Amino acid sequence: MKINNSVLIITERFYPEEFGINDLAIAWQTKGYEVAVLTQAPSYPFDKVYTGYKNKFFQTEEWQGIKIYRVFSLMGYKKFVLLKILNYLCFAFFASLVSLFVGRKYNRVFVYHIGPLTQAIPAVLIKKVFGSKLFIWTLDIWPDSVYAYGFKKRTLSKKILNSFVKIVYKNCEAVFVSCRGFNQKIYKYVSDARIIFSPQWAPDDLKFEDVTPHEMLKGKFNFTFAGNIGKVQNLENVIMGFSLISKSYKDINLNIIGDGSNLEVLKNIVKEKKIENVYFWGRKPLKEMPRWFEGSDVLIISLIDEPIFSLTVPAKFQAYLASSKPIYCVMRGEVAALVINNKIGFDSSPNNIYDIKTGFEKFLTVPQQELEKFGRNMKLLLSNEYDRNKIIDQMTEEIFSLPISA
């Protein structure tokens, strides 16, 4: 028997991993809805199962009153692309098996689409078998992101991917998108899709009241990048652009906070080229980030120059807004437009290290009053466009007001 006003969230990533879906799940639970999560053993971004958890084929637990179903996670995805793909398929397979047993309990299924769209497979299965209503929050567009990460566009694989994407979106009652630019991509597959703009918000754990700057950042003008460190983050060019001014301006630092598959490559670049004042601080808990942000003068957001990323607003953008620190945007498209139109920082071409160098210099030569104005404008943008409560209320209304047949 289905539980009234219930939702099963399907996501590869969930608590204790730090993603926005944790906050949304708690918000729905607090509002009185029955919330459950189908996910895998937590391992991101370390590529090893978190301490206190086991990597079983199936296990259950409870967190904040939320029932969690966990399935097996294949390790090694951080080092080997093949294992990453197999891990995607592994989750889709085991989650589909579990969904046949637990899916009947829930009259709504919600997919948190960050990363592979294959995690929507068990959700579509639940809809087909049990008649549940299906919703998806798309934070990553397939198949465009697949190609952006280096996979080749071959005729057969392209047809398969396009057909798969069409099936997923065609089965959704509504598609929530984190970026307005995603609309055109989804309409290409399902022309009558119901698409609702629902951007991400700053993590609830980020508290900036009475924050003291981190002691490691004192005494210098600090540019800081925080987040995943992969190939698409374009940090090679950011570092090379910084290297062109690091000898001329002695009192500046480039701080890189985070972990990822490209971290060692970046460290080797800095070492081999003897680039000064670049510091790698490793991954830090989310609750510590306000101190690192407060000690920074400018926050960097960057991605490689691929068409899909021109439509993308990375999750760190909202976190940066909450800090009220100016943003240096080393990417094209929607984020660059947000930065320039709202006067919250400067941008540069992601492919041109001399243009990136010029962007760094702009921040070093602009009057302090201008930097402070950037911060005030960020607060306005955060409250007008990325208000947590407004976005959650909108999503809740769309999902839980839809009539469910008995």
Beta strand count: 14
Envelope shape: globular
Gyration radius over CA: 22 Å
CATH superfamily of the largest domain: Glycogen Phosphorylase B
Side by side, the strands of the main sheet go 3-4-2-1-5-6-7-8
Give an overview of the whole structure.
With about 400 residues, this protein is α/β, with parallel strands linked by helices. It has two domains: about 5-200 and about 385-400, Rossmann fold (3-Layer(aba) Sandwich); about 215-385, 3-Layer(aba) Sandwich (Rossmann fold). Helix content is about 40%, strand content about 20%. The chain contains 14 helices and 14 strands. It has helices at about 20-30, 80-100, 120-130, 145-150, 155-170, 180-185, 235-245, 265-270, 290-295, 315-325, 335-340, 355-365, 370-385, 390-400; strands at about 5-10, 35-40, 60-65, 65-70, 110-115, 135-140, 175, 195, 220-225, 250-255, 280, 300, 325-330, 345. The strands form two sheets. An eight-stranded mixed sheet has the order 3-4-2-1-5-6-7-8, with helices on both faces. Strands 11-10-9-12-13-14 form a six-stranded parallel sheet, sandwiched between helices. Strand 7 (about 175), helix 6 (about 180-185) and strand 8 (about 195) form a beta-alpha-beta unit. Helix 2 packs parallel to helix 3 (about 120-130) and helix 7 (about 235-245) crosses helix 12 (about 355-365).
